[in-house]
Design goal:
Largest sheet of chain B: 4 strands, antiparallel
Helix content of chain B: 55-70%
Radius of gyration of chain B: 23 Å
Number of helices of chain A: 7
Order of helices and strands of chain B: HHHHHEHEHHHHHHHHHEEEEHHHHH
Strand content of chain B: under 5%
Shape of chain B: globular
Largest interface: A-B, 59 and 62 residues
Distance between the termini of chain B: 52 Å
Order of helices and strands of chain A: HEEEEEEEEEEEHHHHHEHEEEEEE
Radius of gyration of chain A: 31 Å
Strand order of the largest sheet of chain B: 3-4-5-6
Oligomer: heterodimer
Shape of chain A: flat
Number of strands of chain B: 6
Structural class of chain B: mainly alpha
Chain lengths: 402, 491
């Protein structure tokens, strides 16, 4: 009798556990089902809207012409008889955006129209594919089979070859997502959830956790799953009436949080491994020389060598981007030399005094140094200086006279 | 020798701060006092160091480790003597409170697993601080520029506007874009570097790890003092310390936001405790840390102001409260119908508060107007990206239940006013001013909310977990008594 009572007691206590497990299973199925239905029933276009290049979004890359109400008109072909237009593809993912459509008027029969593009990973490499125009003014092409259509697409454009007997009017170029199958969606989810995001300058402001344009952002998916779990738990009869009945709901919520935290820990572990590989066991200059800005830091070490041991009275850091990264890094690394980087041009006569120093970060157009006359010259003036060091990344000079 | 002094620079303020909190919590046998003392103690100790360093600068001494060290030793000795004279700390060192033998085995297992998980996380973040050179932008562009100069020169070189720097013929001043920012965070980075005897990025960043520990310990201790069991307290501490944006600010040390979050939130939580229990010690902690907020960031003044509405609701009852609310509304209507006000404050500058513009010296000039586009950034950053795990979903659900409970006890209403004031201020900032760009570009929306999130999480805890009497360390088993404790306001 005692054993029966104990069994019943255990069964009563284990029942909620079983219900929670069943709810998580059903929640998982429901989440997967709803996501597949959403993306298969047209939701993809909402999450990944088509990139339409028309009007000002298209620029002439080769040839002569301009914008007209009808579209970008090319009246004369450019060098090598090429007529080309291009626009930003906004770094869309090639694996999602696999359908290109175009509207181009004025193509001669037999004249070939090519789609060109470059990727984020290889911005200097132009890839291309001949589009099946058949003399028609518009068409659609599936890019799935193109080997170069991968990664993130930076720039996309159209190229027509041959002399133009009549103006070519590019009305529109559009990249659109192609409907994804269930397997493709699953693969996409896996790719997004396992994408590694190393520390970057944006990390301090936000953590994406997946590509910014992810179809399956982990937080949203886990929230959806947790919501379904709770719904199923309520359906299974564990309504949260009493205070004690909240516990399974709390457990489900914490489970969702834990999954996200495990993923975050995995991310942190990988980041730490990168940090360790790069910096562990190194100190001071060694550590900076192991960083991504090693070349720049090496340049600054050379600059520091040419500066006096005592902190210089004033160091003018001149660059094309005074508020930018490199100017700021130069100031920081050269501290306690008394530097400031808010200068687009060398300091005017009167502002700089003998004994001050000027650090110029290349490229700085319009600024030159005459070694014979020891004169730093720019559009607004000139300054008698001694050039102490010059390299590809910049130069450091000592002011000799006002 | 240098590293020993660095250890001393980090540990001594912690010990002194903890000691002084135990001086005022001598009698405490309650679970949570030690973590609270360690958490709040570190923060107060380090803030005291910055005050010593400020005094050193004002007195015209060179930047040096020894003067504040002497001050800390004197403070520590005084605290120790006081503690010894009044009888040693009651209860000894029982950190997590009574859980062995009083909680089911599965709870003990979960507790240990969770604690291990947190320690693993913090170890990883500490190693990031240890290995990685100073990384985030504002850290090397603003905050540590001053620290590095002071530590390297061993002089309190003044920082002025770029215009003054350019105009200074002697060039004995330095400049930085954020020259008007408070110097506390720069001093915090300078302190261990001064102890070391020179600038070293890792050393300068170590106080950030301490800030994270202080936040976790203070948060845990306050949860225990509110009556949470050790497991529930650790669960909520895990929720806090697992937030990716917070972890990022620990790993990529150098920003002021972690200090702002720690100071403001620990102040707010102590304020909540004071409102509920009328414990003056909590009131003092809240006051000290709230007053420190403007010294950490310029926004700290705004955060400090968030205590005012809650204090008014706490202090005033019945018709005085209604009169006060009425007067406030009349003033707002008058301000609106007059088209705003503009005035000068000596030594501060010109203030403009109009329906279309707010200008506050040092904070900035903000054109006012509703920007609905911020909703998109809020949705993306709070509910889609990985910044906060499921925190904002939890807040949304908690809001529903909080509304049902708000009429229950008076302290709930005061806390609701506090949370509401903070939420309203953030709404105005990101939806009605040019700061919408910070939201649109994702540059500071998460960082600014982070200041307030630990306090918000504590409020979430109070919504879900019923008030229980605090566990006594000497009790064989905690006696659980659900209580409204609604009329224990310090009024």
């Amino acid at each position: 009798m005692k054993q029966i009572m104990q069994s019943l007691y255990r069964a009563n206590h284990l029942k909620p556990v079983g219900q929670v497990i069943a709810a998580t299973g059903c929640g998982l199925l429901a989440t997967a089902l709803i996501l597949v239905l959403f993306y298969r029933a047209g939701g993809l276009a909402t999450v990944a809207p088509p990139i339409v290049l028309a009007g000002d979004a298209l620029q002439l890359a080769s040839g002569e012409g301009g914008q007209t109400p009808a579209g970008l008109e090319i009246r004369k072909a450019g060098a090598q008889q090429l007529s080309s237009v291009q626009g930003s593809a906004r770094m869309v993912r090639a694996s999602i955006y696999r359908r290109v459509s175009w509207q181009v008027e004025g193509l001669e029969p037999g004249q070939r129209l090519r789609l060109i593009w470059s990727t984020l990973a290889e911005p200097e490499t132009a890839r291309e594919v001949v589009l099946p125009t058949d003399g028609a003014a518009s068409g659609v092409f599936d890019l799935t089979a193109q080997p170069g259509w991968r990664g993130r697409i930076a720039v996309v454009g159209l190229v027509a070859q041959g002399a133009l007997n009549r103006p070519l009017v590019v009305r529109r170029l559009e990249l659109a997502p192609k409907l994804l199958g269930v397997t493709e969606l699953a693969r996409m989810a896996l790719t997004e959830w396992t994408a590694f995001e190393d520390w970057s300058q944006r990390s301090i402001n936000f953590t994406a956790g997946a590509p910014l344009d992810a179809l399956f952002p982990p937080v949203l998916i886990v929230a959806l799953w947790t919501g379904f779990n709770m719904m199923f738990l309520a359906l299974f009869g564990l309504a949260p009436r009493a205070i004690g009945a909240w516990k399974p709901y709390a457990a489900l919520f914490l489970l969702g949080w834990l999954i996200l935290d495990v993923r975050w820990q995995w991310d942190l572990k990988q980041r730490l491994a990168q940090t360790e590989t790069r910096f562990a066991g190194k100190t001071g200059d060694e550590r900076m020389l192991a960083s991504a800005e090693n070349e720049f830091y090496r340049f600054l070490l050379e600059v520091r060598e040419r500066l006096p041991k005592e902190p210089v009275r004033r160091l003018f850091i001149v660059s094309t981007t005074p508020g930018g990264y490199w100017a700021g890094r130069a100031r920081y690394h050269l501290l306690p030399h008394n530097g400031y980087m808010g200068f687009l041009q060398p300091p005017a006569i009167g502002a700089a005094r003998p004994g001050d120093y000027i650090l110029i970060l290349s490229p700085l157009p319009g600024v030159s140094y005459d070694r014979e006359r020891r004169m730093l010259t720019w559009a607004g003036g000139q300054l008698l200086t001694e050039r102490l060091y010059a390299a590809e990344l910049g130069a450091v000079l000592r002011v000799l006279g006002e | 020798m240098g590293w020993w002094l660095v250890g001393l620079a980090l540990v001594l303020p912690w010990v002194v701060g903890t000691l002084w909190i135990r001086v005022v919590w001598r009698d405490a046998l309650s679970a949570g006092v030690w973590p609270l003392a360690l958490g709040y103690g570190y923060l107060l100790g380090m803030l005291t160091v910055t005050l010593f360093l400020r005094l050193q600068a004002v007195a015209g001494f060179s930047a040096d480790f020894s003067d504040p060290l002497v001050g800390l030793i004197v403070l520590g000795a005084a605290g120790g003597w006081w503690l010894w004279r009044r009888g040693a700390m009651a209860g000894g060192f029982t950190f997590f409170g009574p859980f062995r033998g009083q909680q089911p085995p599965w709870q003990r297992i979960v507790f240990v697993l969770l604690l291990s998980w947190l320690l693993w996380r913090l170890t990883g973040l500490a190693l990031e601080i240890w290995w990685r050179p100073l990384y985030p932008w504002d850290a090397w562009a603003n905050w540590t520029v001053r620290s590095k100069v002071w530590a390297a020169l061993r002089q309190w070189a003044p920082f002025v506007t770029p215009q003054l720097w350019l105009a200074d013929p002697a060039a004995v001043v330095y400049t930085v874009e954020a020259w008007a920012y408070p110097i506390t965070v720069s001093l915090l980075a300078s302190w261990p570097a001064l102890a070391f005897g020179g600038w070293q990025e890792t050393i300068a960043n170590l106080p950030w790890l301490g800030a994270a520990l202080a936040l976790g310990l203070g948060f845990y201790g306050q949860l225990r003092l509110w009556g949470a069991t050790s497991l529930v307290a650790l669960l909520f501490t895990w929720l806090l310390l697992s937030l990716p944006i917070l972890d990022t600010h620990i790993a990529l040390a150098g920003y002021a936001d972690l200090w702002m979050a720690t100071a403001f939130s620990l102040a707010a939580i102590a304020f909540f405790q004071w409102v509920r229990t009328a414990d003056r010690r909590q009131g003092v902690l809240a006051l000290l840390l709230a007053l420190a907020c403007p010294l950490i960031k310029l926004e700290g003044t705004v955060w400090l102001a968030m205590f005012i509405p809650a204090l008014l609701v706490g202090w005033l009852r019945g018709w005085p409260l209604r009169v006060c609310t009425g007067v406030g509304m009349v003033l707002v209507i008058a301000w609106w119908s007059l088209g705003g006000i503009a005035f000068d404050v000596p030594r501060l500058g010109h203030f403009v508060i109009r329906p279309d513009l707010i200008q506050v010296p040092y904070l900035g000039r903000f054109a006012l107007g509703y920007h609905p586009g911020t909703w998109g950034s809020v949705w993306k950053n709070f509910f889609v990206l990985a910044n906060w795990h499921l925190f904002w979903y939890l807040v949304l659900i908690s809001l529903v239940f909080a509304v049902l409970k708000v009429r229950g006890e008076r302290w709930r209403r005061v806390m609701a006013v506090f949370i509401g004031s903070c939420a309203l201020m953030l709404f105005i900032l990101f939806f009605c001013t040019d700061a919408q760009h910070w939201a649109a570009q994702y540059t500071s929306i998460n960082r600014v909310f982070m200041h307030f999130v630990p306090a918000l999480l504590f409020w979430v805890f109070t919504v879900w977990i019923p008030v229980r009497s605090v566990e006594k360390l000497s009790d064989p088993a905690p006696t659980v008594s659900y209580s409204s404790m609604g009329e224990q306001l310090p009024v």
